[in-house]
User: Fold this.
Amino acid sequence: MLCQTALVFQFRYSDEIVGAFPTTRGGVVHATGLANGATPPELLAAYQAEQHTVRERLGDTPPSEIPGLAAWRRTFTAFGVKPTQYRNAAEALVRRLAKQGNIPSINLLVDLANLVSLRCQLPVAVFDQRMVTGSTTVRFAAGNERFTDLGTGTLSHPEPGEVVFVDNAGLVSARRWCWRQSDQSAARPTTVEALITVEGQHEDAELDVTRASQDLRHLLSEHQPQTDIASAILSPRRSQFPP
Assistant:
């Protein structure tokens, strides 16, 4: 699945990552011309309805038994991260919903991503592209890259060997693969260009990631009709977008 734009943009998985994790499947959506802001009533209603559906469907099932989340736990363990200490974003979202009963609205892009994440039970992230230098690469950290924590504003460096999303200038937009985003990459009312990713490691990841990517495109087209959208499904066979 591929839609072309004339804009310069690149996202890739390094050869080392796809070699170490051949189950990696990534849906990449690149959107420009965004007008982020408050979530419109119809999207908010769908988001709230999905939260109710997920609570009912999960019941007493531990998030760790959901195939997509269990696969991410195995992946975190494989690159030296304790998955019970650092929850992947989708598991953290499901656990928060189970504990609090609802997830408050933040803004259109964040709510849209969380809606799809709950539907597919996979990590979905929105990265503002304003501060990105060159391409974004998913690779093992050297340890000298820079990361500013979203929420605390604390500047730190990733641990060598953990998986990061990083640009050509060494600015990290996500640590521990799909654990936490940076302050610079957060979707805000000023966001006009965004990278949206949905990723899986489980047996049916390619099918589920494809469906989730299509869902993202549909929701963006419906609620941001002025937006230019390009997308692709990445795997070890095709690890870069655009090629």
Remarks:
- Confidence is low (pLDDT under 50) at residues 1-7.
